[in-house]
Amino acid sequence: MNKYDEAMKESDSSMFDLSTLDELCEKTRIIRYNLRSCGFPLEGVMIPSFWGSMSLKISGAQTLINFAHMLFRFGEYSGIGIKTSMGMGAVAVIEKNGGVKNEND
Q1: How many CB atoms lie within 10 A of CB 95?
Q2: Mind listing the pLDDT tens digit for each residue in 13-29?
Q3: Where are the alpha helices (H) located in 47-101, listed in sequence order?
Q4: Residues facing 36 on adjacent strands
Q5: Using CA atoms, how far apart are residues 1 and 17, in angstroms rounded to an integer?
Q6: pTM of the model
Q7: For the chain, first and last CA: distance in Å?
Q8: CB < 8 Å & 24+ apart, contacts of 94-100
């Protein structure tokens, strides 16, 4: 949310909202993951990093699910974490089951 706000400085509104962040954390579960340790070469030094995939399940209102989906798509564009300008934090969103769906669908 903070990174999105920073990218959209021209806008008068802010996306960051602590209660929304809390709800996202409460309603999101990691249901599957496959991570491996690796090194990321940076200026002649190998920085500990990881590579892999994970599946998330987000329950709750469709609005919350859509907001999370928007943030994930922005993460594909901007990267996640620090040193994204150097290639770290790359993300690819792979939709399963036809895309974003509410658990009631």
Answers
A1: 10
A2: 788 889 999 999 999 99
A3: 62-78
A4: 51
A5: 8
A6: 0.77
A7: 27
A8: 94/53, 96/55, 100/65, 100/66, 100/69
Residue where the block lists tokens 């400085």: 9
Residues sharing a CB contact under 8 Å with residue 88, sequence separation 6 or more, in sequence order: 40, 42, 47, 49, 79, 81, 82
- The runs of H, that is alpha helices, within 2-58 are 2-7, 18-27
Place of tokens 């990218």: 7
Where along the chain do its domains lie? 2-86
Question: What are the residues facing 50 on neighbouring strands?
Answer: 37
Q: What is the pLDDT of residues 3-13, one digit of tens each?
A: 888 888 876 77
Q: Are 39 and 49 in contact (CB under 8 A)?
A: yes
Quick check: helix, strand or coil at residue 47? strand
Residue 69 CB partners (closer than 8 Å, separation 6+): 100
